[in-house]
UniProtKB/TrEMBL annotation:
<keyword id="KW-0830">Ubiquinone</keyword>
<keyword id="KW-0004">4Fe-4S</keyword>
<keyword id="KW-0411">Iron-sulfur</keyword>
<dbReference type="GO" id="GO:0048038">
    <property type="term" value="F:quinone binding"/>
</dbReference>
<feature type="binding site">
    <location>
        <position position="134"/>
    </location>
    <ligand>
        <name>[4Fe-4S] cluster 1</name>
    </ligand>
</feature>
<feature type="binding site">
    <location>
        <position position="78"/>
    </location>
    <ligand>
        <name>[4Fe-4S] cluster 1</name>
    </ligand>
</feature>
<dbReference type="InterPro" id="IPR010226">
    <property type="entry name" value="NADH_quinone_OxRdtase_chainI"/>
</dbReference>
<feature type="binding site">
    <location>
        <position position="124"/>
    </location>
    <ligand>
        <name>[4Fe-4S] cluster 2</name>
    </ligand>
</feature>
<dbReference type="GO" id="GO:0051539">
    <property type="term" value="F:4 iron, 4 sulfur cluster binding"/>
</dbReference>
<feature type="binding site">
    <location>
        <position position="127"/>
    </location>
    <ligand>
        <name>[4Fe-4S] cluster 2</name>
    </ligand>
</feature>
<feature type="binding site">
    <location>
        <position position="84"/>
    </location>
    <ligand>
        <name>[4Fe-4S] cluster 1</name>
    </ligand>
</feature>
<keyword id="KW-0479">Metal-binding</keyword>
<comment type="subunit">
    <text>NDH-1 is composed of 14 different subunits. Subunits NuoA, H, J, K, L, M, N constitute the membrane sector of the complex.</text>
</comment>
<feature type="binding site">
    <location>
        <position position="88"/>
    </location>
    <ligand>
        <name>[4Fe-4S] cluster 2</name>
    </ligand>
</feature>
<keyword id="KW-0812">Transmembrane</keyword>
<comment type="function">
    <text>NDH-1 shuttles electrons from NADH, via FMN and iron-sulfur (Fe-S) centers, to quinones in the respiratory chain. The immediate electron acceptor for the enzyme in this species is believed to be ubiquinone. Couples the redox reaction to proton translocation (for every two electrons transferred, four hydrogen ions are translocated across the cytoplasmic membrane), and thus conserves the redox energy in a proton gradient.</text>
</comment>
<dbReference type="GO" id="GO:0009060">
    <property type="term" value="P:aerobic respiration"/>
</dbReference>
Length: 182
């Protein structure tokens, strides 16, 4: 068999240019074949669901939106070391580090903190490498938090600390803590 006629999938069909018969030119058989395929699918199990009325159970390994964690005293854990940004294959993370002032001990756990921390959700592929790289257990991809919502403005997909930092009451109240992705 020559290279031109070989088919990797074995499903290659030679196309013929022969003239159509009268019956073929009416396309009746072709239309009926198409209708039959449609009807056959009516009785099959549907792969779609009526979201948002119905929701699917998330996979045990589902990774949702990131959360910048606080410790049990409500202080931000992140020390702006940049390891998460370095390990991110999508280059989705940016941050600005600042030194903690003496009167900010109750806000930030470490001497250095991220005054700006942003994740571009359009770039993120939810791989979880940022979570694995973090030496301070400061960033997690949550299971229970909502998915990143759709939007029509690209700017709205850049999530800053206002969207990422764990709510204060969640840090203090153990019953509210989010489920982390495994
Ligand atoms: S989940 Fe992956 S792609 Fe998304 S910010 Fe973290 S390291 Fe980057
Ligand atoms: S989230 Fe973790 S890895 Fe990223 S800058 Fe903060 S402390 Fe460093």
């Amino acid at each position: 068999m020559s290279i031109e006629t070989m088919s990797l999938s074995g499903r290659k069909k030679e196309v013929s240019n022969k003239k159509m018969t009268f019956l073929e030119s009416l396309y009746l058989v072709t239309i009926l074949k198409g209708l039959f395929i449609t009807i056959r699918h009516l009785f099959r199990r549907k792969v779609t669901i009526k979201y948002p009325e119905q929701t699917r159970e998330m996979s045990p390994v589902y990774r949702g939106q990131h959360m910048l964690m606080r410790d049990e005293e409500g202080r931000e854990r992140c020390t702006a070391c940049g390891l998460c940004a370095l390990s991110c294959p999508a280059e989705a993370i940016t941050m600005k580090a600042e030194e903690r002032k003496p009167d900010e001990m109750h806000l930030y756990r470490e001497e250095k903190y991220a005054s700006i921390y942003e994740i571009n959700m359009l770039r993120c592929i939810f791989c979880g490498l940022c979570e694995e790289a973090c030496p301070k257990q400061a960033i997690y991809l949550t299971k229970s938090r909502t998915m990143v919502r759709s939007n029509s403005d690209r700017e709205d997909f850049i999530f800053g600390k206002d969207k990422l930092v764990m709510p204060l009451d969640m840090a203090i109240d153990n019953t509210k803590k989010p489920q982390m992705a495994k």
